[in-house]
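seq:
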Amino acid sequence: MAEKEITEVSSVLTDAEKAQIEEQFRQLLEKSPRLRRKVDRERVRKAFNLAYLAHKDMRRRSGEPYICHPLAVARIVSEEIGLGALSISCALLHDVVEDTDYTIDDIRQMFDDKTAKIIDGLTKISGAFSEHTSSQAENFRKILLTLSDDMRVILIKLADRLHNMRTLGSMPPDKKMKIASETIYIYAPLAHRLGLYAIKTELEDLSMKYRYPEIYEEIASKIKQNEKKRIAEINRFSLPIIQKLEENKIRFDISGRPKSIYSIWKKMQTKNISFEEVYDLLAIRIVFDPKPRVSEKAMCWLIYSLITDIYLPKPDRLRDWVSKPKANGYEALHATVMGHDGKWVEVQIRSRRMDEIAERGYAAHWKYKGDRSLEAQESELDNWLKKIRELLENPNDNALEFLDEFKLNLYTSEILVFTPKGHIKSLPKNASALDFAYEIHTEIGDHAIGAKVNHKLVPLSYKLSSGDQVEILTSDKQRPQAEWLNYVITAKAKVSIKNALKAERKNHIRLGKEKLERRLKEINLSPTAYVVRKLMNAYEALTKDEFYSKIGLGLINLDNAEEILKKKSRNKLVKYWTLQFLRKSTPVKGVLDTSKKEKKNKKTVLLRDLPEGEEAGYEIASCCKPIPGDNVVGYLDPDKDTIVVHKSTCPKFISLAAKHGNRIIPVRWTEHKLRAFLSRIRITGIDRLGILSEITTLISKRLDVNIRSLNVDVHDGIFVAIVDLYVHDTIHLNNLMLNLAKIKGIETVNREEYSGE
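struct:
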């Protein structure tokens, strides 16, 4: 596959390499829990022999024989997911058709139709893609089409991605960023949705390791430093519970589980706290064997009762996924209790069956097919797959839009709501009444004008809660509105609204083009790229489609078009800073200076004055507004014909990297003159007379920093100030924040993401 960077070599494998490969295959056979029958072992050996022969002259970028990769994927499929002989064989063969001369027909003749179908689902689409389409997105769409027929395709694909992430260290920096972004954007959420908790957690951690290596190492180091203390806390907390469970003759295992590095970092980010302030760094897991003639659900609540006899529970943190399992099949009872020294500790209670499904996900269901309690879970998963099929079959949706909408169906906390007739509908948390309307039927959503929730009239934007009974009010005259996209969160609703708006917008764009051409013809001009761009800038339109659409709607009348086009442009760009592109990239108009002098200068690219009519070849992203000193990455934007510079932590960039990994361009700051960049800080503290004056005096007079805006909110003696100000670089900003932190009464000073105006 593309991320593996296969290198063909003619060298024969060494004896040591052959011995290593044979040992890996022996361990695959010995440690696979579902390879007990002779016929299954023979099938796997046949697949291994073909893969060994097909990949014999290939090596990975790391230098190891390529066959080691499919062997490792097969072991993940077998030992970590728990699949059987067919899946293990397909894991061994998953790259044979893509990377060698063997075809799907060869696989079908040597094995069977089922194997060929799964291998076809795992094989990358060949051929060229349009410039506006991501090959990753198209490939992912094809895999999901196969997923709707056979779940094993996506499970093997996840195993393949997991091994690639485990061996990502040998890749160049831009490839690491691309693959890690794809992983956190799609593959980790997908593993979560399929109930593969262990794989999901490892994918998140590995993605973070390569996206933010310094932060990852810092958190990992702190966890290691606290390891002995954490083990002592676990033992101290667990001892009374162990005694209580043994007194009640319950067979169980108890273990302490630290939070993953990624989940710790996410909590630090969302709550704006330090590592030391993350209170639930560990959780206790109790896995029990049910007693005869006692249900698993009753056992969970019995254990919960015994624990809360010892420790005080936190009622609002009780999570009951035993009565109603998650859509991915996850079952457990989670409780948070007050431990020693006033620390909250999460306790997870599961049966042996629940634990295996939690770790291995959908694959573990097969082991318990006879258990009726699983029927509801499997129907939930079927419902999810049905929604995915609806997305896949939507002819108006392109691959990249599909990828965004599909992601909405991955990480979900569900609520249960009722129709007027008492039927239950499962929706994501924070779903609106309009989401519910589209969940019932697209036609009902398109014509919805309001809703009744628990017999009370509410707007379509009303957020639903579990247990609500919802009735949708409709009108034949109603049509989908653009603002509806602001308060729907389900993929089905978003896709339906977008499709309706697209159809309407196409008419406006067509009409707008016709109006523009007529107006330009009146003043003896043609709609060249330069003319259109100049008018777009004057009328403050960001894209051509927006420009044409506004003309079509009558929002732009073009009466002063001739006057605008006669004005001379004045380009006032100054060489304020320099960006260095760390590798050669596709030349972009206005970006790369072709003079020999600059070619010798490490391909340094300068922001410079350009001739009238030309545009700068790169720009600062408005979504994250990086300043000199920030870690930055370039993205080659095909629509704007320019390179957009983002902060490496920018969520929008991560999404772009996941879809268009081939357009990432590594860049860095090399020098900059004293220019002011807009940034934002957040100050919190205890309110007192004169503190605001001290803050503004320090910023404006003592540190000579210009404040653009200042917003202060005071509640119960605590103030929060959001300050937008102009700084030269990160050093300047950090110095300012350190000085502010010294003011009496100020508790925290943090840099905030600046979203732009």
